[in-house]
Design goal:
The chain is mainly α and about 200 residues long. The protein contains nine helices and no strands.
């Protein structure tokens, strides 16, 4: 009898995030950059869907009226995408800060361009975007899913992501910006402009 392969929703998302991190290297090829962006978008969407599943499994279905336990068990249904998942989370009272939402829109635009047209970008912009979105994803997991709820395999994936992230210069730079009080003060007295490429 063939071996049954199983990976739960959150593990699937964390696996995509881990793969995105593994492709984010200073010497990344265009192919690695492309796969990092696509896996990152997929991983974030799956993490958001895990929260929707925990709230109410019907929230996963594009057409909530068609939601049923059988299709949910087999995964045989059209699920919401990243934007719709974010909208449904907001409807359920889970809103992301404006900065996080902007980063996710930038990722979605970049992924769509790659998926439907071509990779036209710079490595620096992709690295900065990847780092900032991973920051959003890790915070979301900790704040809205809870590390204590993760399985052993999910914890191992999350720890691997955290370990690798500490090595990414772009991620460290982004995290410092996120927690830097001087930036907040500068915004009060200066004009701060967001880069359209890396956000």
């Amino acid at each position: 009898m063939p071996e049954e392969l199983k990976m739960g929703l959150l593990e699937n998302g964390l696996d995509d995030l881990a793969f995105a991190v593994s492709q984010s290297l200073p010497t990344a090829t265009p192919t690695q950059c492309k796969h990092a962006v696509k896996s990152l978008a997929s991983g974030v969407a799956l993490v958001f869907k895990e929260k929707l599943r925990r709230l109410d499994p019907s929230l996963l279905f594009e057409d909530r009226a068609a939601a049923n336990a059988g299709d949910l068990a087999t995964g045989d249904f059209i699920s919401v995408g990243l934007d719709k998942a974010r909208q449904r989370l907001a409807t359920e009272g889970i809103t992301l800060p404006n900065r996080a939402a902007s980063r996710l829109r930038g990722l979605q635009n970049r992924r769509n361009r790659i998926e439907h047209y071509a990779l036209i970008d710079t490595r620096d912009a992709i690295d900065a975007s990847t780092a900032s979105v991973l920051s959003v994803a890790v915070d979301f997991i900790e704040d809205h899913l809870g590390v204590a709820t993760l399985s052993e395999r999910e914890l191992a994936l999350l720890q691997g992501i955290r370990d690798r992230l500490s090595e990414l210069d772009a991620f460290v730079k982004t995290r410092r910006q996120d927690i830097s009080a001087p930036l907040v003060n500068a915004q009060k007295s200066s004009l701060v402009v967001t880069c359209p490429l890396c956000l």
